[in-house]
Amino acid sequence: MGVVIGCPMRTDDDEPGASACDSAGPMAQMAAGAAMGLLLRDATPADIPALMAIEQVCFDSPVAFNRRRIRNLITNPRVYTSVAVVDGSVAGWAVGLVRRHHSHRSGRLYNLAIATAARGRGVGRRLVEHLLACFSRAGVRHIYLEVEAGNAAAIALYERCGFTQVRTLNDYFGSGRPGISMRRSVT
After folding, report:
1. What's the Cα-to-Cα distance from 141 to each of 33, 57, 78, 107, rounded to whole Å?
2. Count of domains for the chain
3. Per-residue pLDDT for 24 more than 80?
4. Whose CB has fewer CB within 10 Å in the chain, the N or C terminal residue?
5. Is residue 182 assigned to a domain?
6. If we measure between CA atoms, which residue out of 128, 64, 66 comes closest to residue 96?
C-alpha cells in the first residue's frame, strides 16, 4: 500500500527544483497511489483546515498545532511536510526537520497525526517510512522524536520503525504527562 511523491526540503547539494526523495516520475507515482487507495504528497495551504481538524482530534491544546503553526511549517522550504490521502480525504500528516551540525545532520520527526478513521490501516507507518527516506537522502545520521509516554500505539509504531527509547522526559507534554525521547540511526 502506498507511494512516495517527494520531499519539499532541499539541501545545499540538491539541484534547484529537484525533490529530495523522488524515485519515479510524478504521474507514475500518482497512478500507483490511486490504485492502492493511499497517496502521499507534499502538504499545501489548502490542506490546513483538514490538518487542523486532525490535530484537534489527536492532541490536546496547547500541544495541537494551530492554523498559523501549520501554515509556517507547510510554507517553510527547509521542512518536510507530507500528507496521506486515503480515498480522496486527508487521513494524516507528518512533519520532519533537519538540523545541521558541524560534522553531520540530524533529523527530528516533529509531528505525526493520523485521523481516527485511518488508524490501524498503515497510514502512520507509511508516513514515517517516507520521512525516513527523506532524512536518508538529506544525509541525516540520527533521527529523534518525542512521544507521550501513555501513547502505547505510537510507541509501538516507532519501535517497529527502528526507534529505541532513550530517556523519559518528565512533564514534557504538561504537568503529569511525561514524554519519551526516542532515537534511530539512519543506515
Report:
1. 29, 32, 17, 8
2. 1
3. no
4. C
5. no
6. 128
Query: Which residues does residue 183 pair with via DSSP β-bridges, in sequence order?
Result: 144, 164
Per the CB < 8 A criterion, the answer to whether 80 and 136 are in contact is no
Alpha carbons 20 and 46: distance in angstroms, whole number: 22
Give the Cβ contact number of residue 102 at 10 Å.
4
Cell of 95: 512533519
Cα–Cα distances in Å, from 76 out to 16, 114, 137, 151, 159? 15, 22, 18, 29, 29
Distance CA 136, CA 114 (A): 23
Residues 6+ apart with CB under 8 A from 155: 147, 149, 165, 180, 182
Domain that holds residue 41: 26-143
> In this predicted model, what pLDDT tens digit does every residue of 26-73 receive, in sequence order?
333 343 344 448 999 999 999 999 999 999 999 887 789 999 999 999
Q: Does residue 173 belong to any structural domain of this protein?
A: no
> Does 65 reside within a domain?
yes
